[in-house]
């Protein structure tokens, strides 16, 4: 009898304990603040509150503007307000195709001159015309892409524009509604700008009427050596934006000591002491249909989508192969590209796409303060003609392999929060950027 009472009592206690535990489990709320902060989900808005989207016309910009007037040539510096004025007024104008069978020459040789606009890479024509405020009507031209423009005053006293496609070996002409008074003001101000000369005509294999020139300054050029404080960009932000489910992301340290984060498929690897990151999103389909959207636009939208324009990055180059499409947006400071980071390549945002999927994204994980620390030091660089003479001294130098001759910056990181950028001459030779040296450094003048 007592045994049965004991069993009943124990059963009642167990039932009561079960009810209590069930209630506690049902009403339990974890103390989020006490959890490991590295594993907490942080809304992307709180990590990137100061990032803003950019307009496409802010990242597709001319590389050079060359004024032609009375057999003289001058370059409008990028930091000159008139550089942006010319481009903005062009993009606000209305266009109309007037000659699709133009035969050149490019640019036209005219007494009243004109302005040649050179882009860093070929721009798809439909993408270029999307930059214009053209209204509802879409501009259609028989060109796939363009490399250069030439604005000039026609005999009818209106401003016209030549469009050159080097790859297609073709030029067409369009009319604009640019103010002839405004336009001639820029042309007649040629003496305000840096005098340049055409030193190489490219490419020699194409029609002589459609060759293009490389322009370099006639006189030595002064440019500033600048120093900046840097700010680190949060890797947490890129975990939240680039991984589908951030809660699945785990941290690993690779054999080379670099940190990495992966959800089992995608991976972010930190490189160069966590100054840069590489995002890989592998695909497992052998064949994919090529995306109809151009890689320039796809890359721009991808970076815009997560507010990745941490500094002044603009389109530098793009390429397509059977397996992959790539686009690169290079950092610019004071109008000059940052071509070298401690000898390891440019400061750039690089996008790779296979089929419809972004499969690779590399970028710096730091940004520059908006104002440099010291702007007083100026460095005098040799003239562009001296650069060409230096190159011609080399036994195996081939002028036809020379694509660009520009002043650019080399960046050196003095410590984890301080960088210095110094101007140098660079050439794009054989599709590879190389620094031109004049004293020591490289035995053949190139590094």
What do you see in this structure?
It holds the Pfam family YycH. With 447 residues, the chain is of the alpha+beta class. It has two domains: 56-208; 219-447, YycH protein, domain 2 (TATA-Binding Protein, 2-Layer Sandwich), CATH 3.30.310. 19% of the residues lie in helices and 38% in strands. It contains nine helices and 25 strands. Strands 11, 12, 13, 14, 15, 16, 17, 18, 19, 20, 21, 23, 24 and 25 form a 14-stranded mixed beta sheet that branches. A nine-stranded antiparallel beta sheet has the order 3-7-6-5-4-1-2-8-9. It has a two-stranded antiparallel ribbon with strand order 10-22. β1 (64-69) and β2 form a beta hairpin.
Which secondary structure elements does this structure contain, and how are they paired or packed?
Blueprint lengths: L1 H26 L16 H4 L8 H4 L4 E6 L2 E4 L5 H11 L3 E5 L14 E11 H5 L15 E9 L5 E7 L4 E7 L3 H9 L5 E9 L9 E6 L3 E4 L1 E7 L2 H8 L7 E4 L5 E4 L4 E5 L4 E5 L14 H11 L7 E8 L4 E9 L2 E6 L6 E7 L2 E8 L1 E3 L9 E4 L2 H9 L9 E14 L2 E12 L2 E4 L12
Parallel strand pairs: 18-23
Antiparallel strand pairs: 1-2, 1-4, 2-8, 3-7, 4-5, 5-6, 6-7, 8-9, 10-22, 11-21, 11-24, 12-13, 13-14, 14-15, 15-20, 16-17, 17-18, 17-19, 19-20, 23-24, 24-25
């Amino acid at each position: 009898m007592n045994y049965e009472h004991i069993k009943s009592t124990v059963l009642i206690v167990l039932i009561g304990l079960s009810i209590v535990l069930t209630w506690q489990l049902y009403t339990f709320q974890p103390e989020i603040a006490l959890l490991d902060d590295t594993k907490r989900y942080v809304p992307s808005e709180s990590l990137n509150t100061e990032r803003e989207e950019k307009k496409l016309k802010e990242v597709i910009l001319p590389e050079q503007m060359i004024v032609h007037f009375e057999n003289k040539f001058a370059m409008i510096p990028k930091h000159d307000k008139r550089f942006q004025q010319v481009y903005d007024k062009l993009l606000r104008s209305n266009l109309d195709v007037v000659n699709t069978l133009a035969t050149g020459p490019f640019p036209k040789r005219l007494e009243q001159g004109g302005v040649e606009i050179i882009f860093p890479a070929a721009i798809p024509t439909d993408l270029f015309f999307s930059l214009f405020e053209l209204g509802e009507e879409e501009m259609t031209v028989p060109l796939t892409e363009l490399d250069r423009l030439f604005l000039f005053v026609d005999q009818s006293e209106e401003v016209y524009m030549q469009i050159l496609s080097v790859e297609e070996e073709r030029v067409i002409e369009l009319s604009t509604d640019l103010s002839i008074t405004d336009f001639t003001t820029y042309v007649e101000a040629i003496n305000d700008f840096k005098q340049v000369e055409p030193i190489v005509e490219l490419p020699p294999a194409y029609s002589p009427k459609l060759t293009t020139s490389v322009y370099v300054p006639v006189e030595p050029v002064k440019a500033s050596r600048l120093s900046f404080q840097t700010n680190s960009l949060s890797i947490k932000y890129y975990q939240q934006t680039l991984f589908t489910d951030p809660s699945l992301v785990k941290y690993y340290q690779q054999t080379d000591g670099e940190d990495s984060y992966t959800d089992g498929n995608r991976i972010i690897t930190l490189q160069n002491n966590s100054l840069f990151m590489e995002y890989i999103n592998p695909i497992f389909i052998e064949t994919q249909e090529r995306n109809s959207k151009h890689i320039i636009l796809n890359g721009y939208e991808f970076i815009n989508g997560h507010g990745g324009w941490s500094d002044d990055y603009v389109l530098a180059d793009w390429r397509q192969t059977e397996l992959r499409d790539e686009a690169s947006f290079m950092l610019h400071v004071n109008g000059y590209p940052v071509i070298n980071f401690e000898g390891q390549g440019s400061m750039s945002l690089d996008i790779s796409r296979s089929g419809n999927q972004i499969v690779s994204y590399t970028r710096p994980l730091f940004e520059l303060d908006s104002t440099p620390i010291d702007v007083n030091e100026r460095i005098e660089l040799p003239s562009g003609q001296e650069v060409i003479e230096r190159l011609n001294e080399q036994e195996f130098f081939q002028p036809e392999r020379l694509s660009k001759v520009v002043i650019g910056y080399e960046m050196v990181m003095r410590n984890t929060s301080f960088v210095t950028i110094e101007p140098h001459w660079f050439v794009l030779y054989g599709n590879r950027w190389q620094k031109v040296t004049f004293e020591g450094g490289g035995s053949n003048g190139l590094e």
